[in-house]
Amino acid sequence: MRYLAFDLGAESGRAIIGTLADARLTLEEIYRFPNEPVRIPDGLHWDVLRLFHEMKEGLRRAAARYGTGLKSLAVDTWGVDFGLLGDKDILLANPYHYRDGRTRGVMEEAFKIVQREEIFSQTGIQFLPFNSLYQLLAWRQQHPDLLSQAQAFLMIPDLFNFFFTGIKAGEFTNATTTQMYNPRTGAWAADMLAKLGLPVNLLPAVNPPGTIVGQILPRVARETGTGEIPVIAPGSHDTASAVAAVPAAGPDYMYISCGTWSLVGTEVREPVINEQTLSLNFTNEGGVGGTFRLLKNVTGLWLVQECRRTWARRGENLSYSELTAMAREAKPLEAVVDPDHPSFLNPEDMPAAIQAYCRETGQPVPGTKGEIVRCALESLALKYRWVLEKLEDILGKKLPVVHMVGGGTQNELLCRFTAGATGRQVVAGPVEATAAGNLLVQAMAMGEIKNLVEAREIVRRSFVLKTYDPENTGAWEEKYEVFVKLVS
Ligand code: ADP
Ligand code: LRH
To answer: Does the complex come out with an ipTM higher than 0.90?
Structure first.
């Protein structure tokens, strides 16, 4: 059968058709459109109306090509961002983008009312300043009148599902990323939210991934030339979809979902909420098929994306392949940074931020583009090693294989570095893991496949995976000693 996935990433949105035949999945990108946040005086926003327009264009193209052969569609994007609807479902503002600065200091304010330990024990979610919890608190502090008019809170994929179907519903994997949902009770953390003075009545009922939300509205069907077609909630958190498509055969592996962020972790059956995960700031996000994603956010290829953007602004347009080639030529393991240092969250000038970090920590300062990108890639690999060690400690077992999925696996240097730094074999691919996971959950919802095990067998059969064996482990070990001091 044929399904349509919309995957909205930080650099672009994609409409991808997946065809499942003979237990193999083939992907066809039918439309790609920009997904750039828009800065206006009050802050950085999603352009949701434009994006919905683009998704309808994607649907139109898919329908023109396959007509009624299309069985369903589903939307995923990054976690934590949401929209608010008011009276008669009016969109109250353009949703904010999580990299907007308005949540600065809000998390610390929240801890004065509900302690950090309590928030973690209720939600199991890592502390990131832009979690929906702190975004909603920022709404309360900065726009209390508008918030008091809100009648529904919808995560971004749920908002698009509402635009498509007119039905308002939440979805589990993304609900957990808010830090407002209690995975142990399987409900919104109502008491905690009430203590923080946040309205609980806005929050939607939460469906498991693989739920049919509803049929597209007749008007959307007319506009796009589509017949009746159901909208499905996949793992609507992009990372949940990516993890669903990790081609692992057994349980003992670490994955790295490698794109703008690197989401580094493993799959567990129950959330691991204890002092250790709290102090290491690990998270337990909801997964597909009754699983949880025990992981840590590592600032990922954002470092390279932002370098590229800074250089482009100065008139030097370089592709990722060109930048990687320059990095390959640079001297290995000179200076390293902690990718998660706050100065890298949203700097004006990423190369300057990397240089400043190296200067301030008494290391050689990378000067050329190749040196800067190499420093970023080696630092990422070392941070993956750091997470691997902590994860093995938490679980009390060894994770002998590292699976890397997502757009970042096209960066072979990063895959090689990861094998070297972790001392593990790296299995890289698929590149479009998020879309594949989205499509396979649709296939589950439509009854074409049974479960996650079958989905992963299909992924293994359908995509060419590349393996990297560890090299230069001695040099990596030495640099890791230096790196660990920067992190702790
Ligand atoms: P997102 O998390 O935004 O959805 P993707 O999974 O699409 O991100 O990955 C995008 C990243 O993949 C880019 O920022 C870039 O660093 C990397 N990338 C894409 N193509 C290449 C390439 N040809 N060579 C090296 N890196 C690449
Ligand atoms: C990755 C991701 C990640 C979230 C971040 C905001 O795209 O969804 O899992 O923490 O974006």
So the answer is: yes
